[in-house]
Automatic annotation (TrEMBL), chains A, B:
It is an enzyme of class 2 (transferase). Substrate binds at residues 159, 185, 196, 279, 402, 407. The keyword Cytoplasm applies. GO terms for biological process: L-arginine biosynthetic process; ornithine biosynthetic process. Heterotetramer of two alpha and two beta chains. It catalyses: N(2)-acetyl-L-ornithine + L-glutamate = N-acetyl-L-glutamate + L-ornithine; L-glutamate + acetyl-CoA = N-acetyl-L-glutamate + CoA + H(+). GO terms for molecular function: L-glutamate N-acetyltransferase activity; L-glutamate N-acetyltransferase activity, acting on acetyl-L-ornithine as donor. The record marks 122-123 as: Involved in the stabilization of negative charge on the oxyanion by the formation of the oxyanion hole. It comes from Mariprofundus ferrooxydans PV-1. This is Arginine biosynthesis bifunctional protein ArgJ. Belongs to the ArgJ family.
Length: 407, 407
């Protein structure tokens, strides 16, 4: 059901990192040996690290513990351990115990201190976390550590994703070429509870930890925070960035803007892959908001359009329903002048000056909305700021997956 | 598809009011004579009036003009004129011209001043408003004015509603009995754009215009603003309240609390009828939030649960998916302590103290969620405020109506 999935090139190894996976049977012991469900990413040197997490008030223990680690030890992180199959969430006091044991397992396997390990868990909520199955098999992940382990890791973090998601880039700064490789899994929400959006990016670029955290927040706002499958965010959503460059002896970047641009593009690509693989999605729609008073306003407007069930069903029905789009803009809460809005679907001008454009023909709009991939451009005429949001349609398949999965 | 529709008793006439309808063929001339689509509510005396309107930034001309009238002339309103079949919205400058002509038609038919008329329009957006068809037939509404015209009016304001919605009540205050009668139409969103929620309530209770406006806002917050079919609000949503009592010679109420209680109950009943008739709705779910720090917080939490596609598909699938409900609470933006939340489905205790309750059995939750009508109770343990929100499920039928209607 995925939309225009690109053929992904092999992920690039990143100097300073090795990656391994294990099959623990986290979700069920019968899956032991059948699929990989544990990922270990190890930095050979102390890495600078940053993390961006779910804004949901229900935050799993792995998120809370990672925030604490990043507050004190963001300059010498050595490993990420991540499991699929169980989110270790909604479990009361045992949640923190199990999350701590997961970190201990990762620390032992990577032979580093527990304060140098970040964890992430994804899968069902409210089911006791089978830490003993992970403890029994984590050595497989240590044994398989390899600079070329990224594709295996992209597969091991999957839950309901229909394909593995990764992206790599190289960026040249001051005559030195640095590598970025990221893997991600989708935020499809599935029985019996919700899954989780995870993204892990590694680089050998040399960046101060403080800069890294501020940068990752900006990048997340322009990538993972600009996608919407169904408007819900999970208890465990996590994006980590690890940078090994300083530990490898590179001099700190004096100007991080080129790196930030490369990181943004990489995260946008990962985020778009998640939308393309969204539950029941048959269309990939780019919503571009321009002329806003601020970037935050632009993003708020774009997200309001992206999450509206009426807009998303119109996408599904190939119905060029400009009224629903404008109504969603009007409902965004952002102050707008409805007479200043210009609306295009791809290059078809639909609405301007408070009215349908006189040259607009419904058939032209319908032709755009029938495409598997198209853009909605909204200029709100209030300023110079812009934002882009990516979304899919709302289909019967989404209802089937989410209403009928439990049998 | 409506859920547990109650058999409605006949609406009561309200002293001081007569109601008439006409068939204008607003949506299409071929419907002329086939269905009523124009409603005229006439006060025989100057009425105190109040209005609550959509918060969508796209506001149709009828809404903008009514706000202006209520700002200056709320103490002597004489009529409401309302049409179905065309929302007179998204039409640029002509919108105000046509809205003004609709008011002129109502004023002429009721033989009152244009400054004493409020209007409302519902139907398709972006289609030129056929004012001439209304002008040609508005006399039918004047000719049919009758104290018992409320049921006909409840039918004439329908668009996609599957049944007409009204409610009446009597309230005794200081030895005098007053009547309230209200009619409403649903906010189902339909091709080619969105329809509109309309509610008109008349009473012979004697209440100062200022008190009336403040009261109607409070009442709307506890009734129409507490329902959600799909989270979208339209360009034309309107609730009017007309009170004839002072013009009929009653002394002003010294204490309006009994009246406000009756008005709240009546508006809740109308609002619930709209949910029961929501597009594709097969379940009627009451979400009760208690223990919040403020009523606004409680309502925000309730609405967050009520609009979540994951929660609504779980309702559709009879899936007692407590994780999705808690995640929606966590996404509401309200500060909560996740360990302080108690969650019940009807009388089944599901979640408490940060964990599933040890006595909870999935089968018990599933039995509740399988009912056509049930309650979700969320105590958030932060204070004493509460709110109740009513919602439906999200089904294939909703997708079919909204994605596939255009053929």
């Amino acid at each position: 059901m995925a939309v225009n999935t690109p053929e992904l090139e092999k992920p690039l190894p990143v100097p300073g990192f090795r990656v391994g996976t294990a099959s623990c049977g986290v979700k069920s012991p019968v899956l032991k040996g059948k699929r990989q469900d544990l990922t270990l990413i190890v930095g050979e040197v102390p890495c600078h690290a940053a993390g961006v997490f779910t804004k949901n008030r229900f935050r799993a223990a792995c998120v809370r513990q990672a925030e604490a680690t990043l507050a004190t030890d963001a300059e010498h992180v050595r490993a990420i351990i991540a499991n699929a199959g169980n989110a270790n969430a909604g479990l009361g006091e045992m949640e923190s115990v199990w999350a701590g044991q997961l970190i201990e397992a990762g620390a032992a396997a990577a032979a580093v201190s527990t304060t140098a390990v970040l964890s992430a868990s994804t899968g069902v909520i409210g089911t006791p976390f089978p830490i003993e199955r992970i403890q029994a098999s984590v050595h497989e992940a240590a044994d398989s550590l390899d600079a070329n382990g990224w594709e295996a890791a992209a597969n091991a973090i999957r839950t309901t994703d229909t394909f593995a998601k990764w992206s790599s880039a190289e960026v040249s700064i001051d005559g030195q070429t640095y590598t970025l490789t990221g893997i991600a899994k989708g935020s499809g929400m599935i029985h019996p509870n919700m899954a989780t959006m995870l993204g892990f990016v590694a680089t050998d670029a040399p960046i101060a930890a403080n800069d890294l955290q501020a940068m990752l927040r900006r990048v997340a706002d322009r990538s993972f925070n600009c996608i919407s499958v169904d408007g819900d965010t999970s208890t465990n959503d996590t994006l980590y960035l690890l940078a090994s460059g300083l530990g490898l002896g590179h001099a700190p970047l004096s100007d991080t803007s080129l790196f930030e641009q490369a990181l943004t593009e990489l995260c946008i690509e990962l985020a778009q892959l998640i939308v393309r693989d969204g539950e029941g999605v048959t269309k990939f729609v780019t919503i571009e908001v321009t002329g806003a008073a601020s970037e935050a306003d632009a993003r708020t407007i774009g997200r309001a359009v992206a999450v509206s069930p009426l807009v998303k069903t119109a996408f599904a029905g190939s119905d060029a329903n400009w009224g629903r789009i404008l109504s969603a803009v009007g409902n965004s809460g952002v102050a707008i002048d409805t007479n200043a809005i210009t609306l295009l679907a791809d290059d078809v001008l639909m609405f301007r000056d408070g009215n349908l454009h006189p040259d607009y023909r419904d058939a032209d709009g319908m032709a755009v909305f029938a495409r598997p991939e198209f853009s909605i451009t909204l200029d709100v005429g209030m300023g110079d700021a812009s934002a882009t949001v990516w979304t899919g349609d709302l289909t019967h398949e989404y209802i089937t997956i989410n209403a009928e999965y439990r049998t």
